[in-house]
Amino acid sequence: MVTEDMHKRSYFSESELGGIEPESRRAEYESLLRLKKGLRVTVNYDGSVRFIFATFGHSAIGPGWLKGIQFVPTGTKPKGVLVKTLDSPQNLSAGVYLVEVEPEWFLLYQADE
After folding, report:
1. What is the pTM of this model?
2. Confidence of residue 46 (pLDDT cuts 50, 70, 90)
């Protein structure tokens, strides 16, 4: 759905749905985004989609971190460092880290400086 609407916006949250029409489509977004409090979805020009569940200490690793799941379409190179595990995130420097769960789907951790 977000890849279809990416020409209208690239960031989707319960409070950020301006420009999504018709009302039934906006209501569908609102319903899906309520599945997890604070869920935000971003879409990139290459068709990759991030489902961000936690940011900046709210169920995340700590201040400056976000975590979620990222979809990366076949034929698109994931943006970030591919790692086998995120068991020791405190040892990672700032950056984007991805663990492949299955083809096209990755766990996502991002640390800002």
Report:
1. 0.77
2. confident
Are residues 12 and 28 both part of a single domain? yes
Say if CB 23 and CB 51 are below 8 A apart. no
Residue 73: domain span: 44-113
pLDDT tens digits, 80-111: 999 998 887 777 788 899 999 999 999 998 88
47: tokens are 């068709």
How many structural domains comprise the chain?
A: 2
Q: Which has more pLDDT, 9 or 109? A: 109
Tell me phi and psi for residue 38, to 5 degrees: 85, 5
Say yes or no: 17 and 53 in one domain: no
53 and 93 part of one domain: yes
**Which runs of E-coded beta strand occur in the chain?**
11-12, 40-43, 49-55, 65-71, 81-82, 95-102, 105-111
